[in-house]
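Changelog-adjacent note: as of this version, every example in the card shows the full chain rather than a window. The one below runs 190 residues end to end.
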Amino acid sequence: MTLVKIYSENNPNKVETIEDFASIQKTLAFVNIKIERWQTQTGLANNAEADDILEAYDQDIQRIMRNHGFSAVDVISMHGCSNLSKEDLNKSRDRFLDEHKHSDDEVRFFIDGQGLFCIHEAGKVIQILCKAGDFISVPANTKHWFDMGANPDFKCIRFFGEETGWVANYTGDNISSSFPKLNDILSPVA
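Full-length structure tokens:
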């Protein structure tokens, strides 16, 4: 289930949790984050090729590309990452965990699995647990970080304004180290 956790940027121990999707949309609209639920394509196999995935979601993809002026789209799959060493996997994860901004919107649709977007705006840290069927659009120049978890398990369609993809402009703020990670959200301590 998609959920949002809202913290004061100065207090990671006090949290408000929102689970109702309409309330999530309304809350995120205040910081210009757009989230939608897309109809998942049930005919796709778990191991479907990128071209098949892009074809299955073509109508939504074309709408988003027109609305945002994107020029490229791809599919990223992080399941088990058996082709990466633990060290390379940790390096990959760590570069997304540092707070950064992009000069382009960061837009993803989760085909399956999950990931945690963390937005740092207006004195708040807003964590958005995205699951299969979630579309999220984070506007350009929004301070954020992303956690794919210790054992990444997701497949996403990503949209780009430039063929080279996003370039992270790191803020140098280590705020992300003070807040829960994806694994903490998925397995809260009782």
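Structural remarks: Residues 3-173 form a domain with the Jelly Rolls fold (CATH 2.60.120.10).
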